[in-house]
Design brief:
3 strands, alpha+beta, single chain, globular
Length: 109
């Protein structure tokens, strides 16, 4: 599928992040992170605790909604757990118990 224009992708990802932010407000430092959209090789995201920014691949906007939600929750969970420790995965599972199926959707394309 064609990639959406960057401004459209950004507005979309900002809205998706705002929907999930209340669940992470306490661990995200009390302020909604800056949201960025970049052209990346994957359909994932990256977070920077230092700058308080979550950056998402523009390609993520072409993925199914459950996959998009998985990436957003994954990146938010990194504010509390900056690694992929068992505690990190437990935090992801708390919000998305079916995260493994959602993660697989990213690998189908």
């Amino acid at each position: 599928p064609a990639l959406p224009p960057k401004a459209e992708a950004l507005a979309y990802m900002q809205a998706l992040c705002r929907a999930y932010y209340p669940q992470f407000a306490a661990t995200a430092g009390g302020a909604m992170p800056n949201i960025a959209v970049r052209d990346m090789n994957t359909a994932g995201g990256r977070g920077s605790l230092r700058t308080g920014t979550l950056a998402f691949a523009r390609r993520l906007c072409t993925m199914p909604l459950p996959a998009q939600e998985y990436v957003v929750v994954h990146e938010f969970c990194h504010f509390a757990h900056p690694d992929h420790s068992p505690a990190f995965w437990a935090a992801v599972a708390e919000v998305l118990p079916d995260y493994k199926q959602r993660e697989r959707l990213l690998k189908l394309r």
